[in-house]
Amino acid sequence: MSSLLTRTRRDLISVGIASAAIAGAWPFISATARAAGGTVNFADIGVGDPGGDWSLFTEASGWNVNLVAIGNAPSAILNVLVAGGGTASYDVINIVGGMQKPLVDNDLIEPLDTARLPAWSRDRNIAEFLAKGTRGFNFIGYQDKLYGVPTVLQGDSFAYLPEKTGPLDSYGALFDPKFKGYVALEDNYTTAGQKTALYLKHADLAKIENPADMTPEEIKTVVDFLIEHKGKGQFRVIWSSFQQAVDLIVNKEVYVIDCWEPMVFVAKSKGANAVYADPKEGYLLWAMAAYLTKNPKRSAETTQAAYALLNFMLGGWYGAKITLLRGYMTNTDAPEYAKAHPDQFPAGAAEKVAVITDNVHHKFAQGGTWQNRWPKHVDVYETEWARFKAA
Amino acid sequence: MSRNRSAIRFVSWCCLSVVLLVIYLPLVPPILFSLAPGEPDAALTLRWYLALWRDPVLVSAIATSLEVGIIVAIAATILGLGAALAIRELRVPRLILALMLLPLFVPGVSMGLATALFFRLVGIEASLVKIAIVQTAWALPFATLIVVTAMSTFDPVYLEAAYVSGAGRWRAFVDIELPLIRSGVSGAATFSLILSFNETIRTAIVQGPLNTVQTYIWSTYRQVGLSPALYALMSLLILLTLGLVAAFVVGGARPPREVSVGDFAAASSQKP
Amino acid sequence: MLGRFLGRWGFPALPIAFAAVFVLVPLALTIVVSFWTRVGLVVRPAFTFTSYAAFFAGARLLVLERSLIASIEATALSLLLAYPIAYFLAFKASPRAARTVLLLFTVPFLVNYIIRAFAWTWLLGRTGLINALLIATGLTSKPLDWLLYSDVAVLIGLVTSYMPFMIFPLWVSLAGIDRRLIQASWMLGAPPARTFLRVTLPLSLPGVFAAAIFSFVSCFGESAIPVVMGGVGYQMMGNSIASAMDVLNYPLAAAISTVVLVTMMGLLLLWYVVFDARAFLGMILRPRG
Hints:
heterotrimer; C: mainly alpha; MetI-like fold; 13 helices; disordered C terminus
């Protein structure tokens, strides 16, 4: 046995580091287990993370929140929920809404009982934009039942660098030969594809009845149009990550980019002069929804805690925090709360929350088209988009 | 003649340095960005290196990555040793090698989904277990190859000598062979640790409620953009590894111990 | 008796059991699922080739073609770079220097490969470091567009990612060549180039093939580099699979995975047939009487 006891210095160092690491990390690991009530497991795409600070929620309910970062693509969510045993692992998932159909059909989420959400009726956005019978309801409901709590609302268009392009007011800029090679699109047929359809419809370049739910022939027309421009070298790149889009703007790699508004905020904070366009065709409207996963084995206390979390996300502090951090509109309590609590939200911050909220209200007033995350012919969308990418 | 040779040597080292430089070039931007101040035109700052420890999600991700990394390093090395032994002992070495190398030939995305479906079928739910299994399966071919390579320089005649001296199989393996392939074993462990740390795709599909550093970075990169704290974490990793490499080189890797008569005596005196 | 049996075979059997359960079974599951059908959003067991038909008939076949070409190019380039380096480290450098350099090559892998890819975009962009240097030194007057979001960029990404990994098997193979064989060749009067071509190179071929296979397979299944650094819609097989999973078309994703698997298995078989794996396994195989 003596030979096994002979350790090299290297082995000792590695063992030492390992023990120190575990010893150092233990408090954090066990802290989550030490909360009075327990832990709500919250899967989020990153947007719903209030900077890691759930203290107000924990104080009020006695429960911790364990936030897990997941991707926003339907596959990421569904694979994690279906294949990864997710309904047992997560209690609440917060993703871009409109995913009710596949989630409900696969028995993954539960309808919500608004009686357990006191803050529900206070959020006027819900009645205004997401009421039953309107297109907005598709983001939180399915077959007349309510499934999601709207945590974020937003309208998308595109961004541009005014010093390179001058003021722009139409999606046509994305296809303008003047900017050949300096345009970027998002790799997403429900955003870039739908915006293109919106433009084609308004410019009378194609017969599209409803950009939000296109027929296979309409989709093919849109993709043919895109392929034609791709062949002419119109697009520099198709992006698929937040960071990627921000870099494209900050590095001035492109001048016109189909993207989300928070990217403009981040780019501006890094000194770039970028503007989010106000196009005459209107905006791509969407909302994020927080769903309650369907888990028969979950205890009643945990379910109650999950409802408490959903309610918390409809509240003023959470809304203001998310608006401030991410640049999206949240709930109607948020701007008032920020103004009323200067200790938590200094003057500049409260102002920013109010400005962003007004901005998004304006977008919704302008209208456009509601994004459709799961169109009827989604398979055709995907195949056609693959054809665009492979061309 | 020797001047020519040292000129060639010099040029070769220059070319090698250029290659290393190109490989290391992408490590520079993260370090630069980790020092970037929050506001434009402010001075360079080290504050992100402190800020990263105050983010509970990031810290728990680091803890998870470390836990999983250690488990994978130990498991993959032990399994790799066993696999190398199996290749040597059993009559179908090429078949076993093929089985061990299989994960190398499957795209990460496919393997992740396949394993996740399997877990659901069988009912394994514990997140740490699933991540550890998926990463061990990924590291196993590498560990096996490294141990096999180390074993290929070990002459089995030493084992025969040990048997002749009266030692049992296990004793002989542990006392004679293990010390001589020690560098291969620790190499396998280190490599498995590195692979585990770097693994993103498979882990992301089975992760459940736990984050690892890589899945956290992947998710933030895609959804909300990277923060200077993450760059700080990456820079710390780079500096830590470079430090370990330096320590390793300066400490000097001792050559494998020569086998001596004393070892045989020790082995044979401790019969099972 | 059982104790002794387990004692002898238990340990080696463990990894085989592990691999069988956690690798073979999931892969078999994938192949099975690739023949299933999809009704709406639900996957039903069946036996049909619709997914394969969809794959081979559609635009996705172009992705297969592109993956093959890019992987072959990247592997060839990587070999051309890695072999001289491995040769130099095995023959011309001191063991300590060689070990240091090999270790240095592993450090970049602790950095998340997405961050490395994104760092390349920062370096290669129109306003990036490389273009800035080129313009500053007067080598070009306008930024080079083709450095990024092009086939060249993907090649750079793939080569810098996998070439360092290839140096190890090459070095192991070269370092393991019995020096006496080379000395014998010199003594018999062969010039260095001839010795290399007829002695060193053939003896190192198992390592070359191992490195080539590893690089090819990794490039083939790569999903991050094409998306971060590739041109408009540049995709490889990994992206194609993820894209099919995005619409929950598991049978299609499984079919594409199976196609990739079969291609790779073909390569492995080729390796086994052309090179006697026993040579690679070396002395660790006990001579059987």
